[in-house]
Sequence to fold (154 residues):
Amino acid sequence: QLDALIATVHQAMVLDPFRDSLRLVRQPDGLRLELTDGAENPLFDRGDGSLNAKGIALLRATGRVLADADVLVRIEGHTDSTPLDGTLYSNWELSSDRAHAARRLLIASGLPGGRIRAVAGLADTRPLVADKPHLPANRRVSIVLTLTANPVGA
Fold:
């Protein structure tokens, strides 16, 4: 079942334009999709919880791919380690806003809302590039897919 899920995501042509921003990480009970920012190709404007045009397109494509997948979903928002200046709005709020922006777009794109089990903002506590926490790749949304025990339609 996990191999089929990985193959579905790998073969989804709708995701092809976003391969530079998409990393797949196999986990024992599912799959982690890392939707990463890039210095030249960001998903978010710096310090903003709203997705830009590329981020919106990537989340919509991801939602369409996952709409029929037999998975439960956890969404995590992440930031780099750069603090936000001159405001009480911190990386905690920013990462939460990014996770919720992703949740709204996934649902609008066909993912059943009942499959979402958690939405969390993790700030800069889990950098993708641990020895370089300031890198753009650390600004991301993680979509953690866990296989369900009862297949859809069973």
